[in-house]
Design a protein that fits this description.
Elements: H1 16-50, H2 61-68, H3 70-77, H4 81-94, H5 100-128, H6 132-152, H7 165-174, H8 188-192, H9 195-225, H10 234-260, H11 266-287, H12 295-309, H13 320-323, H14 328-356, H15 358-383, H16 394-397
Helix pairs in contact: 1-2, 1-5, 1-6, 3-9, 4-14, 5-10, 9-11, 9-12, 9-14, 9-15, 10-11, 10-12, 11-12, 11-15, 14-15
Length: about 400
């Protein structure tokens, strides 16, 4: 995969493949806003039927409930699993190797951006127009995205009626080394014995461990340690999401810039961004207990953790497209499963630790998270690869 690909590059920002990335961006945006909209509107619905005498009952309850309910936050953090993994099947046939980071980061950043928008305006819409308009507005956006999806997105560039000849030739040529024959079965045994694949799973486990803690327990930490009531600041609670969205896109642009200019090899880029995405948030987390007296510094670190963590999107998160493009969607689903397991364990452990002693408990939570991240980083650096694995090649399938 480090071999030089086609040098005749197709058009970029006016190209069909970038149009697909934008459609997926808004599709992910729609999925997360509809999920969080339900969390916001359900409290307003309950208040409107059970608490008629309380004025403005829906103005602050929804946001507080959304942020302080760990089980609901976990569902939103892991939302759109099947849709997100299904997108990797499309990118396996649409994304040239030198543009995979950019395209997938543009598409994937829609979820974080959607969280930012809905947390900023969801409560305002409910208060100003009424809770049904949350569903009307974001449901209408979803219908438009659905129409665009069925109209514009095709399985591969060969069968798309609107793609230019130049762009089609560029994509097909750049992906010429990938097998295109229909798969017959999934080589489970070979996958289980594959250390580069386990490096990806370990990276997902470490990545989701700390991110889940931040997303789930952010208001709890601010309330218990800084003694600040977060219910009056929807914008504050949404800042980590806009940081995550921005870092996802910028990381993808930088990763593919380094590849296109031949400044770094593909394996170096994957390991570099994986290391940054695991090391930087760990340093921020370890520093949190030592700056607890400073409100501003604490908020900055809490924003930086999910932001820098999303640099992993250009690392091990898209590594399945490198080592096994024909099974990328299936392996992404397994990877997110490891992430979900990590989120469940980390949330349970965090709840137990902070229930014992708040200050020392939080310190133990962040040090444990940093240790998990460091393990994932070193494991991926040691065993991560970018070459297509033997079991993912066409010749392997003839023996199954």
């Amino acid at each position: 995969m480090d071999k030089k690909t086609s040098t005749r590059k197709g058009p970029e920002f006016c190209s069909l493949r970038y149009g697909l990335a934008l459609i997926m961006h808004f599709s992910n945006f729609t999925m997360i806003t509809q999920r969080v909209s339900l969390s916001i509107a359900i409290i307003a619905m309950v208040n409107s039927t059970q608490q008629h005498g309380l004025p403005n009952a829906s103005t602050e309850g929804p946001l507080v409930d959304t942020l302080n309910n760990p089980s609901r936050s976990m569902k939103e953090f892991n939302t759109g699993g099947m849709a997100w993994t299904g997108q990797f099947t499309i990118w396996a046939k649409w994304a040239p190797p030198l543009e995979r980071s950019k395209l997938t980061s543009i598409a994937g950043s829609g979820a974080a951006f959607g969280s930012f928008i809905i947390l900023c305006v969801g409560g305002l819409i409910s208060q100003a127009l009424g809770w049904p308009f949350i569903f009307y507005i974001f449901g209408s956006i979803g219908c438009v995205c659905c129409l665009l999806w069925f109209t514009v997105i095709y399985d591969d560039p060969m069968h798309h009626p609107c793609i230019s000849v130049r762009e089609k030739d560029y994509i097909v040529t750049s992906l010429a080394q990938q097998s295109s024959s229909p798969r017959r079965s999934v080589p489970i045994k070979a996958m289980v014995r594959c250390l580069p694949l386990w490096a990806i799973f370990t990276g997902f486990f470490s990545h989701f461990w700390l991110c889940t803690i931040i997303i789930t327990y952010l208001p709890t930490y601010i309330s218990s340690v800084l003694h600040v009531n977060i219910r009056d600041s929807g914008v504050l609670s949404s800042l980590p999401f806009i940081a995550a969205s921005s870092c996802t896109i910028l990381g993808g642009q930088l990763a593919d810039f380094l590849l296109s200019r031949n400044l770094l090899r593909l394996i170096t880029v994957r390991k570099l961004f994986s290391s940054l995405g695991l090391l930087l948030p760990s340093l921020c987390a370890v520093a949190l207990p030592f700056v607890a007296s400073s409100y501003v510094t604490t908020i900055i670190l809490l924003i930086l953790i999910p932001g820098t963590s999303n640099l992993c999107d250009s690392g091990f998160i898209i590594n399945t497209l490198d080592i096994a493009p024909r099974y990328a969607s299936f392996l992404m689903g397994i990877s997110r499963g490891f992430g979900l397991i990590a989120g469940i364990i980390s949330s349970t452990a965090t709840g137990f630790l902070i229930s014992q002693d708040s200050m020392s408990g939080w310190r133990n939570v962040f040090f444990l998270s940093a240790a998990v991240n460091m393990f994932g980083m070193f494991f991926y650096i040691t065993f991560g690869q970018v070459e297509i694995q033997d079991w993912a090649r066409e010749k392997t399938l003839t023996r199954l």
